């Protein structure tokens, strides 16, 4: 009899341990289910609804498992014994019908949630019952994942921050997200779900913060040695306090300007970067990051695609091959200065013209190689010896040719 009770006692102890896990982790572990943003709250409600639907099956199965084990134990002589029983239509309907209905409900929730909570879709409300008017303009924040820190650019306000994000409460925020080197993931649990940040690409996220306070953002995708320290502070401020925060950032003399040269220095790998602010930002910097042409000697991807869309430039396109090198060291101002001249007509966008003008920028660019923290740069591979062509052999001096 005691041996029969042991599995039940163990199951009860395991259930109590699982229920105690949220209490051990503290209240911060429940931020996903009790967030400060309307989008994250709707996503949390989806998790709760999905869990509740699945528990409709899980709880009865667990309860019946314990009931059957107890009712039909070997010591219970009063239990019905039917060795020839093999089918019940009612039981089959319950076994197959209930899971089918739950799957249909889960599918409907997933379909509706996927469209209503699409991160690329502008918000229709800032909170339950608070619709967004057509005249309400969202705050744009440009996000760049660096090694290993986060850069936030406020294009309308003309400022930028590192590892610090301030947002006005009850105002829609449109994030434009990219990365400088490797794939990363932008995640603020109290605001919305995680969105990937990829080099040469732009992703978007629309969200809103409803409650003032301090929250935490992080990277949820491994990106190298300093990944665990890619955390930043998120502050929710009322509208007037947010304006004061912007004015304070502009007034900081030590903030300086975030231009191309400073960005090339900022994106170098570093860990545990303190929060700092830039009083001004060079216009269009984020678009240069996305198009991989912050280095003024590089052709932007939109220029390249424009040329390709028109069928290329024939032989003349060979002259711009050096500018199309986007390796780790050659793409970020660390290669040797170029000696060739380029035809301005090849630039198909206004950004291309600006790049050509920037070639004459007298400011020096740090030529030190980009290396990760604690890593040494490997020796560069030797250049292959060119093989003499048939044309070169035919043009050899007459004294070196064999007599016919």
Task: Describe the fold and architecture.
The chain is an alpha+beta fold and 404 residues long. It folds into three domains: 31-77 and 90-116, Helix Hairpins, CATH 1.10.287; 130-290, Sandwich (Immunoglobulin-like); 301-358, no CATH class. 33% of the residues lie in helices and 18% in strands. The chain contains nine helices and 15 strands. It has helices at residues 2-25, 38-71, 89-116, 239-251, 260-266, 285-290, 301-309, 350-358, 390-394; strands at residues 125-127, 130-131, 139-146, 149-154, 159-162, 164-168, 173-179, 184-188, 192-197, 203-207, 213-219, 231-237, 257-258, 276-278, 280-281. The strands form four sheets. The chain has a six-stranded mixed sheet with strand order 10-7-3-4-5-14. A five-stranded mixed sheet has the order 6-12-11-8-9. The protein has a two-stranded antiparallel sheet with strand order 1-2. Strand 3 (139-146) and strand 4 (149-154) form a beta hairpin. Helix 2 (38-71) runs antiparallel to helix 3 (89-116). It comes from Sphingomonas rustica. It is a multi-pass membrane protein. This is Ubiquinol oxidase polypeptide II. Residues 136-248 form the Cytochrome oxidase subunit II copper A binding domain.
């Amino acid at each position: 009899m005691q041996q029969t009770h042991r599995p039940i006692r163990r199951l009860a102890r395991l259930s109590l341990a699982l229920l105690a896990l949220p209490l051990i982790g503290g209240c911060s572990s429940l931020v996903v289910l009790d967030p400060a943003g309307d989008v994250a709250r709707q996503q949390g409600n989806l998790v709760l609804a999905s869990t509740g639907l699945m528990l409709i099956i899980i709880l009865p199965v667990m309860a019946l498992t314990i009931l059957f084990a107890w009712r039909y134990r070997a010591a219970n002589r009063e239990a019905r014994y039917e060795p020839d029983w093999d089918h019940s239509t009612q039981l089959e309907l319950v076994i197959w019908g209930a899971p089918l209905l739950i799957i249909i409900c889960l599918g409907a929730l997933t379909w509706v949630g996927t469209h209503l909570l699409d991160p690329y879709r502008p918000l229709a409300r800032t909170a339950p019952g608070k619709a967004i008017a057509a005249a309400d303009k969202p705050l744009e924040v440009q996000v760049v994942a660096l090694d290993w820190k986060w850069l936030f650019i406020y294009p309308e306000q003309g400022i930028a921050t590192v590892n610090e994000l301030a947002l006005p409460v009850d105002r829609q925020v449109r994030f434009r997200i990219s990365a400088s080197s490797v794939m990363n993931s932008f995640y603020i649990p109290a605001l919305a779900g995680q969105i990937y940040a990829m080099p040469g690409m732009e992703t978007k996220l629309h969200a809103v913060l409803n409650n003032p306070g301090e929250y935490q953002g992080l990277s949820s995708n491994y990106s190298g040695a300093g990944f665990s320290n890619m955390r930043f502070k998120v502050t929710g401020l009322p509208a007037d306090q947010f304006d004061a925060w912007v004015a304070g950032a502009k007034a900081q003399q030590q903030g300086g300007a975030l231009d191309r040269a400073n960005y090339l220095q900022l994106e170098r790998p570093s860990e545990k970067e303190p929060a700092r602010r830039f009083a001004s930002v060079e216009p269009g910097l984020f678009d240069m990051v996305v198009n991989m042409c912050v280095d003024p000697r590089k052709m932007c991807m939109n220029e390249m695609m424009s040329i390709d869309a028109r069928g290329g430039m024939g032989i003349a396109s060979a002259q711009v091959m050096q500018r199309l090198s986007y390796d780790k060291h050659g793409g970020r101002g660390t290669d040797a200065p170029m000696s060739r001249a380029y035809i301005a007509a090849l630039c198909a966008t206004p950004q291309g013209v600006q790049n050509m003008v920037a070639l004459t920028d007298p400011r020096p660019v740090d030529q030190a190689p980009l290396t990760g923290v604690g890593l040494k740069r490997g020796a560069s591979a030797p250049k292959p010896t060119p093989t003499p062509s048939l044309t070169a052999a035919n043009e050899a001096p007459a004294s070196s040719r064999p007599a016919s």
